[in-house]
Design goal:
The chain is of the alpha+beta class. The protein folds into two domains: 54 residues, no CATH class; 54 residues, OB fold (Dihydrolipoamide Acetyltransferase, E2P) (Beta Barrel). The protein has three helices and eight strands; from the N terminus they run ββαααββββββ. It is elongated.
Length: 138
């Protein structure tokens, strides 16, 4: 199992494609929308083999195929309480915190620098929505 550091901003599956003598990896639009990657910036990229490449086997179970075909599970759960740091403000004026793997948590009525305790209310594939239950600490 690969150890994933907390500083990881994004994790997704992509195919390496050849185009005009160059090799490209396409970044999903959702990664840009959630500011895990920004156009014009440079990032370090880690290339991990698929499970069948790592083991040399071409046979995978249906649960492995389902897991590999989509993005990783969100690192938060509905009802979870955690401390976050608000890094920026979104277009709608809500606070934006990032947790493991660059996963975005939207926190209404929070400002950059706030460090509230929040309860996760709704979890989606690339973003969660939370409410402040204790905070904002600076």
């Amino acid at each position: 199992m690969v150890e994933i550091p907390d500083s990881l901003r994004s994790l997704f599956t992509a195919r390496v494609e050849e185009r005009g003598g160059r090799y490209l990896i396409e970044v999903p639009k959702s990664e840009v929308e959630h500011e895990a990657a920004l156009p014009g910036e440079t990032y370090r990229v880690a290339i991990l083999p698929t499970p069948e490449q790592a083991t040399g086997s071409t046979e995978t179970s249906s649960s492995e195929q389902e897991h590999d075909s989509g993005p990783p599970d969100p690192p938060v759960d509905e009802g979870e309480v955690r401390d976050v740091t608000i890094e920026s403000v979104g277009d709608q004026g809500d606070g934006i915190a990032k947790v493991e793997r660059g996963y975005v948590v939207i926190v209404p009525d929070a400002r950059p620098g706030d460090q509230p305790t929040v309860e996760i209310e709704q979890v989606k594939e690339n973003v969660a929505f939370a409410r402040v239950i204790d905070g904002p600490r600076r």
